[in-house]
Design goal:
This protein is of the alpha+beta class. The protein has 25 helices and 11 strands. The radius of gyration is 33 Å and the shape is elongated.
């Protein structure tokens, strides 16, 4: 039997015989008239992609974290073969807990570790260096001039005499503070790594490498020996190890979402269906990634969680629409088709807004962020099908609990009649922001908050603000190891390398070396520089040696022949085979943003002033040089990304609302949240870097959904001639609780990341939770306040979504 309640509502159809199966759009008929086929197809796809998901690899890549088109990186890659493996390098400090390194037992352990690392897959063996490698040499002044040889002599036999000789060689090697600690209680093994195995072509497996390093640590560490390991590979390995614990956070997020959803609906079957469809979206995403040749890395591991949370929030809206119709007596299949008609375009627009927040990340010239954007875009595309199509079809079979549906309709009617208790009081409170007094206070408060936040955001730094690995907790094993390195070695693990290009065979000329010496002296004056090393400084030391060690000769001799003699004994890391490239090593106290910025500015200024056609100063190699290039790209990309994401959101909102006034009401709360988020980053000591750059784009793309939910109904009611207060109040009755549900679900889901052992993930969780909640508050408070000044006297044009239904699925009275 068919009933109607008002001209604005679709008929209440209790019997399918009264429903015209040919009604609705072509897409609706195509999907709902073939429900079994759609469900069977989805089941098959889920099984196939689930099997593919088992093949998904969790790995990291050094090259993906660097901006390959930046001039610094172009210079580094062009001369990589001449740079002795600079870039992705492990530093393993072997500490003697008792005594010094000049002990037979210690030296034997050091040899074993050095040999084990030498044969480990992925090691760039020609450039590996330790006290035991023949490339580690000593130089001394003798009566006959300079003499030298390997630090570990071929005649070493662990006797007291040979150990004493090693002690003397170390003192004459110049390695104290670099390979050997200043207190002589530890020494370092430098292990350059290859991104790909030259034989098999396989990428380096950072998880496997980290596991081997930990096995080696467990094997050799004792009461007498301690190992300290630093480098990108170890950071990546620790991140992967920590991210494996994210399964626990996924389970917690699932339980929280299910609890909030059940609390809202009091219906077990629809709660399970919404959760299941969101999980199906995650399975499809994880299955498609290996098919497309992608991996999950420590930065994109967050995407499945975002997809699940977004799926839950959008699924709740579809479920609410079906529940409302079933509560009024409509058959579950008809209710599902009504909901599809009402919400498909609105849901599609909202998910497209989400996709925009991800897609703009593709403009950032860092592969790891581009991969994150691709993964997130795939996830949103999957949600368009699983949440807008599959969920309504499944609910058309399962329906919802009749008691829950009636309870929902009764609650709506009670709220409309002013008998809904605390929730009614909340809606009436929010409605007041459409009045002049409350709207003025809200807008002025937003202006004050925006001004304070903007002033604070000016202090936002690009790059790392802490020493060590900010991605990990300060008390993590890696950061403790890094602290050991910094406190015991003058030549830190943060190395900035300036490449000096000369004419062929001219690297040892006085003209080239004098410029290098001048730049080296200026760099040594910077507070963030601990020490430097170059062929120029070695030439001054060699000249002293050639003149019986007299320090009055400690200078560059303006004689190319004399300087050329230095090349025959100089270590190869200071110049290349063709003698057309010099390397100036700058050892930094840390890789903080301010430290790197000082070095970059000095080198650029010096190169511009003193570089000639025959001598060019090129930045930069070394891990600090690569990070400096990354900071530059991130700083430029931050503004570009924000402009693009807001431009895209404005265009989507304009197409949806067809009102520039409504667009202002929707976008200004998002801008305020973005400003406050940057201020929060300053307060928490979080810099803009690869790990945190995507946060604001994600927050804007997802946050605009709230405005879509609220403004859709408000504009529809204004179009029908109602006042702003009436229109907004009815929007709150139908979408207010859904907006709150969405904000709470997303906020709580990502807030659990704050307990992650991975600090950058905890930071992202805090920032995303902040943006989700503040965007929700902006849609409920600032949006109606702005509407008071912009929409109150306007007869709003019809939005693209149906004017008789809100995005929550409830029929408008």
């Amino acid at each position: 039997m068919q009933h109607t309640t008002s001209p604005d509502e679709p008929p209440v159809i209790r019997d399918l015989k009264d429903f015209d199966q040919r009604s609705g759009s072509l897409l609706e008929r195509l999907l709902f008239n073939q429900r079994l086929f759609i469900v069977g197809l989805c089941l098959l796809v889920t099984v196939v992609l689930g099997m593919q998901a088992l093949k998904l690899q969790l790995n990291a890549s050094f090259e993906k974290t660097i901006p390959r088109s930046h001039p610094f990186i172009v210079n580094y890659l062009e001369h990589k073969a001449d740079l002795n493996g600079l870039g992705n390098t492990l530093r393993i400090a072997v500490e003697a807990k008792q005594g010094t390194i000049f002990d037979a037992a210690y030296l034997e352990v050091l040899r074993q570790i050095s040999d084990e690392m030498f044969v480990m897959p992925g090691v760039d063996r020609p450039f590996m260096k330790s006290l035991w490698t023949p490339t580690t040499r000593w130089v001394a002044v003798t009566e006959d001039g300079l003499d030298g040889g390997p630090v570990m002599p071929d005649s070493y036999d662990a006797s007291a005499a040979s150990i004493e000789r090693v002690r003397v060689n170390v003192g004459r090697s110049g390695e104290i503070g670099q390979l050997v600690a200043s207190d002589l209680k530890s020494s370092v093994i430098l292990v350059p790594l290859l991104e790909r195995d030259p034989t098999s072509g396989q990428r380096l497996d950072y998880r496997q490498l980290s596991e081997r390093l930990e096995q080696m640590r467990a094997k050799y560490q004792s009461d007498h020996i301690a190992l300290h390991i630093t480098g990108f590979a170890k950071v990546a390995g620790d991140l992967i190890e920590g991210l494996q614990q994210m399964l626990l956070f996924f389970a917690v997020a699932l339980l929280i979402a299910a609890f909030v959803l059940y609390w809202y609906t009091r219906c077990i079957r629809c709660t399970l269906l919404v959760v299941a469809c969101s999980l199906v979206a995650v399975v499809w995403l994880l299955g498609m990634l290996p098919l497309l040749g992608y991996e999950l890395d420590p930065y994109s591991i967050l995407v499945p969680f975002l997809v699940f949370a977004i799926g839950i929030s959008h699924g709740a809206q579809k479920m609410n629409g079906i529940m409302q119709d079933i509560g009024r007596g409509t058959h579950r299949l008809v209710a599902a088709r009504y909901t599809f008609r009402r919400l498909f375009l609105a849901g599609l627009t909202a998910l497209l807004a989400d996709a925009v927040g991800f897609a703009v990340l593709m403009v950032i010239d860092i592969k790891v962020i581009q991969d994150l954007a691709v993964a997130a875009s795939i996830g949103v595309a999957v949600l368009i099908f699983t949440n807008l199509v599959l969920l309504p079809i499944l609910l058309s079979y399962a329906g919802v609990s009749l008691s829950a549906a009636r309870r929902s309709v009764a609650a709506e009617q009670a709220a409309a009649g002013g008998n809904a208790g605390s929730r009614q009081a909340l809606w009436e409170l929010l409605q007041r922001f459409t009045t002049r007094r409350w709207a003025t206070a809200a807008v002025l408060g937003a202006v004050v908050l925006g001004a304070i936040g903007f002033m604070a955001s000016l202090q936002l730094k690009v790059g790392d603000l802490d020493s060590g690995a900010p991605e990990l907790r300060p008390q993590s094993r890696y950061n403790r190891d890094n602290h050991f390195m910094v406190s015991h070695y003058a030549a830190s693990s943060d190395i900035y390398v300036v490449m000096v290009k000369t004419a062929p065979s001219a690297c040892s000329t006085y003209g080239a070396l004098s410029l290098v010496d001048s730049l080296e002296w200026q760099l040594q004056q910077l507070p963030g520089v601990e020490s430097t090393s170059s062929l120029a400084s070695l030439a001054k030391l060699a000249t002293t040696g050639y003149n019986e060690g007299s320090l009055k000769w400690f200078e560059l001799i303006p004689n190319d022949g004399t300087l050329g003699a230095v090349v025959t004994r100089a270590p190869r890391e200071l110049f290349n085979q063709k003698c057309d490239l010099l390397t100036l090593y700058v050892y930094l106290k840390d890789h903080k943003a301010d430290t790197l910025d000082q070095v970059v500015k000095l080198v650029d200024r010096f190169g511009a002033e003193h570089g000639t056609g025959s001598v060019q100063f090129l930045s930069a190699a070394g891990n600090a040089g690569i990070e400096a290039a990354t900071n530059i790209v991130v700083k430029r990309a931050n503004l570009q990304m924000l402009l693009l994401v807001y431009a895209a959101v404005i265009m989507l909102a304009l197409v949806t609302f067809r009102s520039w006034r409504a667009v202002i009401c929707a976008v200004l709360p998002l801008i305020l949240t973005s400003i406050l988020c940057e201020a929060l980053m300053v307060a928490l000591g979080i810099g803009i870097k690869v790990a945190t750059l995507p946060v604001i784009a994600l927050g804007v793309g997802i946050g605009v959904d709230y405005a879509l939910y609220v403004l859709t109904v408000t504009l529809a009611r204004l179009r029908q001639g109602e006042s702003l207060a009436e229109a907004y109040f009815k929007a709150l009755l139908f979408t207010g609780k859904v907006v709150v549900l969405t904000g709470v679900t997303l906020g709580i889901g990502v807030a659990t990341w704050a307990f992650s052992p991975i600090k950058f993930q905890a930071d992202m969780g805090i920032l995303l939770a902040f943006m989700f909640v503040w965007n929700m508050l902006g849609a409920l408070i600032l949006l109606p306040a702005l509407a008071h000044f912009l929409l109150r006297e306007q007869r709003a044009p019809q939005p693209l979504v149906s004017p008789v239904v809100n995005v929550a699925g409830a029929q408008l009275p």
